[in-house]
Design brief:
Blueprint (H helix, E strand, L loop, with lengths): L8 H9 L8 E5 L7 E2 L3 E2 L9 E2 L3 E4 L1 H4 L5 E8 L13 E5 L11 E4 L3 E4 L2 E4 L9 E2 L10 E3 L7 H9 L4 E5 L2 E7 L3 E2 L9 E2 L1 H10 L4 E8 L3 H14 L2 E5 L10 H8 L1 E4 L11 E5 L2 E6 L3 H20 L6 E6 L3 E2 L6 E8 L3 E4 L7 H6 L2 E5 L4 E2 L4 E6 L3
Parallel strand pairs: 6-7, 14-17, 14-18, 15-16, 18-21, 22-25
Antiparallel strand pairs: 1-13, 2-13, 3-12, 4-11, 5-7, 5-8, 6-10, 9-10, 19-20, 20-21, 22-28, 23-27, 24-25, 24-26, 26-28
Helix pairs in contact: 4-7, 5-6
Length: 394
């Protein structure tokens, strides 16, 4: 059995930042087909929203100047609703019924809510203070023309999609990095191969599902513990992909051949990390394409995904995908291990972190966890202590 060198965690992050990578492919999509992707452009509002004053409440459109001369205003026979196309002009001493979202008639500068008006015969008498702009959406109140709606590197959220459609923007350029994934191990079978006996390749499936939000992922299945097969696949992937991810075959056993292939065909930038559970993770270059070697067990694979694969996507797309929170510990935690270690946590009310059981293969705890933190060896953390928790993408 061979051993591998562990690189300090902070140093591995610096190595990642120093990578000089080509910008990934950019595609133009209909905005409603771009959910979860990363914007490759800045989009500014092409117009004001709303483009003309709108009623913010059901009520009566009036001119506040009329209230200085009249105690009551005559209710017009005209009524205005959203989508009314005909231009309507408010007459002196008149009030026109409008519903929420309706365009204001010309000359109106306020709305008297239905519940703020006493109706007598065909007149309304306001019973609360009315002033210019009262219950009116003014031009550009929601969005000003020229205002930035989404920046390059921002995720495309449902809320941004909805706003852009309101503004008449229907297409957007997004990054689509190409990522090749495969696992290594004679004991494994592809998660798709339902007819075969063996250990299901679920760690690669987990990584693929997260990455498919903002990249084109290609899953090659399970490779055998065969050095020539692994070499051929890595070389092929380096010619077609922006990033290569391998799962398993990255520890120090006799059959852990991935890092050996990277050394021979390219450059191994680091072969392990000085943090328990994420320890076997490595980073290399083959044909100047980054290749990340992730541990095969579920917790280690998830940490490699969030600490290195997602950071690499952030570098490629100039984005921010990962999110961290500072939380209070709900229970004491004693790190009784020889090295700094990763712990899973359940987040309570976005304020507290509840520690879960520790281990590399505790997939049920991983399914329950909201995030993780790296805790220092031989240290006792007390209830109420603050820790930084990185949230899992779900």
């Amino acid at each position: 059995m061979t051993t591998y060198k562990l690189t300090p965690y902070e140093e591995t992050l610096e190595i990642l930042k120093r990578l000089r990578l080509h910008e990934p492919r950019i595609e133009e999509r209909y905005i409603w087909d771009a959910y979860g992707m990363i914007s490759a452009e800045e989009i500014r509002a092409p117009k004001n929203l709303p483009e003309k004053p709108l009623a913010a409440m059901d009520g009566y459109a009036i001119s506040t100047n009329d209230l200085t001369r009249n105690e009551k205003l005559l209710i017009s026979e005209i009524k205005i609703f959203p989508g009314t196309k005909t231009s309507v002009k408010l007459k002196s001493g008149e009030a026109i019924y409008v519903s929420t979202g309706s365009p204001l008639p010309e000359g109106a500068d306020a709305v008297v809510r239905v519940e703020s008006a006493r109706v007598e015969d065909r007149y309304i008498i306001p019973i609360s203070k009315i002033y210019p702009g009262k219950d009116v959406f003014s031009v550009g109140e929601v969005v000003r023309e020229g205002e930035v709606i989404i920046r390059r590197g921002d995720p495309v959220t449902p809320y941004i999609i909805s706003l852009l459609v309101q503004l008449g923007v229907y297409r957007i350029k997004v990054y689509r990095p190409r990522i090749t994934l495969f696992s290594v191990g004679d004991e494994l079978v592809s998660y798709r191969d339902l007819g075969s006996e063996g250990v299901r390749d679920t760690s690669t499936l987990m990584i693929q599902l997260v990455l498919s939000r903002f990249s084109d992922t290609r899953y090659l299945g399970v490779l055998p513990d065969d050095k020539e097969v692994i070499k051929r696949r890595i070389i092929e992937a380096s010619q077609e992909s922006d990033v290569i991810v391998t799962v398993g075959g990255s520890s120090a056993g006799e059959k852990d051949l991935v890092k050996e292939v990277i050394r021979e065909e390219g450059e191994l930038l680091f072969e392990g990390v000085d943090i328990n559970i994420v320890k076997p993770t490595g980073l290399g270059l083959v044909n100047n394409k980054p290749i990340i070697t992730a541990p095969g067990l579920c917790v280690g694979a998830s940490l490699a995904l969030h600490e290195y694969i997602l950071r690499l996507i952030e570098i490629l797309t100039n984005s921010r995908i990962r999110e961290e929170l500072e939380l209070e510990l709900l229970e004491d935690v004693i790190v009784e291990r020889k090295m700094n270690s990763a712990y899973l946590f359940k987040v309570i009310d976005y304020k507290y972190a509840k520690p879960l059981r520790w281990g590399m293969a505790l997939c049920k705890e991983l399914a329950e966890a909201d995030g993780y933190s790296f805790l220092r060896r031989d240290k006792e953390y007390k209830r109420g202590d603050k820790i930084r928790v990185t949230l899992f993408l779900k």
